[in-house]
Amino acid sequence: MTDMQRHIGFIFAAVLIVVAGIASGSDDWQYWSTWSATNKLSEESSVSALAEAYFRDDMSDDYVYDEYITYSRQIGHGFGFVCQAYFEWVEKSEGEWVGTRSAVAGPTYSVDIPVVGKLKLEDRFFYRINSPAEWDYHRPRVYLSHEVGR
């Protein structure tokens, strides 16, 4: 690791710490957990499963569970697409749990940026399967990852 990479890493960590301090909510501790597993089918495609659970009220009340089963395929030149089955259970204010099932699809684009890491752009469109069936929303995401220690 060069001195320049160390300096960039320290600056990035300092910015994250400052932003985390500003964004923190002192009223309630929450716990958001994610478990995932991926299997590469080939150089271009993979399947994965992801499960999440969210807890609020000082981590004593579970209020959201969601699961994704995903097929990803790279088309070329950084472009690809994802197809997902999405299941979500949310606790409403009255204690009643409501489940949603959706089919999800969308394009992706990935590029390696020297020194910074891998940038991935993704836009997913959700189609609600259970009643009433309709286009629900789209959820764009931006991922930035950097391998440390290689």
Supply the key terms:
single chain; 150 residues; mainly beta; seven-stranded antiparallel beta sheet; 1 helix; 7 strands; 14% helix
Number of separate strands: 7
Order of helices and strands: HEEEEEEE
As a percent range, the share of helical residues equals 10-25%
For the largest sheet, list the strands in their spatial order: 1-2-3-4-5-6-7
Number of helices, where a helix is a run of at least 4 consecutive DSSP H or I residues: 1
Classify the secondary structure makeup into a structural class. Answer: mainly beta
Amino- and carboxy-terminal Cα gap: 8 Å
Biggest sheet statistics: 7 strands, antiparallel
Overall, the morphology is: flat
Structural domain count: 1
Show unreliable segments: none
- The chain-level mean pLDDT equals 86
- Rg, alpha carbons: 19 Å
Sheet-strand content, in percent, reads over 45%
Task: Tell me what the structure shows.
The chain has a seven-stranded antiparallel β-sheet with strand order 1-2-3-4-5-6-7, with no helix packed on it. It has one helix and seven strands; from the N terminus they run αβββββββ. The protein is mainly beta and 150 residues long. It has one helix at 3-23, and strands at 31-40, 45-56, 61-76, 79-91, 97-113, 117-128, 134-145. A hairpin with a 5-residue loop joins β6 (117-128) and β7 (134-145).
